[in-house]
Design goal:
single chain, alpha+beta, Histidine-containing Protein, Chain: A, four-stranded antiparallel beta sheet, 3 helices, 26% strand
Length: 88
C-alpha cells in the first residue's frame, strides 16, 4: 500500500469534470484506489463518492493505492493531479 498527499490548488476543487476523468483513469488499474479527506475515505470508483468529499481548493487530500500495480497507478494519478487540478 502506498499513499500520497496532495493539496488541491485549483480554486474550483475537485468538481464533476475532473472527478469523472479520475474515475475513468482509475478503472485502468487492478489496484484498489481510494481518496481520503479528513477522516473520510472513499473508493475512486464512483463520481458520487468523489463529489461527496467536497474537496475544495486549498484542502489536502490523500490518495491511497493498494494492489499489484499500485506504483504505476500512483504515477498516473500524480500526472493527472499536475495536469488537471492545478491553477495555471
Amino acid at each position: 500500500m502506498i499513499s500520497k498527499d496532495y493539496i488541491i490548488t485549483s480554486a474550483e476543487g475537485i468538481h464533476a469534470r475532473p472527478a469523472t476523468a479520475l474515475v475513468k483513469l482509475t478503472k485502468n488499474y487492478k489496484s484498489i484506489i481510494s481518496i481520503k479527506k479528513g477522516e473520510r475515505v472513499v473508493k475512486l470508483n464512483s463520481l458520487l463518492n468523489i463529489l461527496s468529499l467536497a474537496a475544495k481548493g486549498g484542502e489536502t487530500i490523500s490518495i491511497i493505492a493498494e494492489g499489484e500495480d499500485e506504483f504505476v497507478a500512483m504515477e498516473a494519478i500524480e500526472q493527472f493531479f499536475n495536469e488537471h487540478l492545478k491553477d495555471l
